[in-house]
Design goal:
Length: 125
């Protein structure tokens, strides 16, 4: 199991960024696999087996979205507690995020530099 579940960037010009990565990553066998639309924009996922590189609509501030893989929901809960105790700022309490898929259980924090860091578990219960 990899420690990284997925990574994401924001792009000021979302369409141009998606086109760039579609063309640049094609020789590596990485293709566009998913698109999720939200009230505040959309995210496009790229990958080989599963989408694990995401580009979101955003200001292109160079802030990172980094998701660490957790083996269980209890690990997600423990991550959230530990990250807050270490000085992180809450950006989403542990819980299901069914808009991604029915078993998507995650917790989000911002680190001291404003990066969005989360732990995510895809396993049921």
């Amino acid at each position: 199991m990899s420690i990284i579940d997925h990574i994401g960037i924001s792009a000021a010009n979302h369409e141009a960024a998606v086109r760039f990565y579609e063309l640049a990553l094609a020789p590596l066998g990485i293709k566009r696999m998913a698109e999720i639309n939200h009230d505040h924009g959309s995210v496009v996922g790229f990958g080989i087996v599963t989408p694990d590189f995401w580009i979101s609509t955003g200001p292109g501030r160079q802030r990172l979205h980094l998701a660490f893989a957790a083996k269980s929901r209890a690990e997600v809960d423990a991550f959230h507690q530990a990250a807050l105790a270490a000085g992180g700022m809450d950006n989403g309490a542990p819980g299901l995020r069914p808009q991604y898929h029915p078993n998507y259980y995650a917790a989000f924090v911002h680190d001291a530099d404003g990066n969005n860091v989360k732990a995510v578990c895809h396993a049921p219960e």
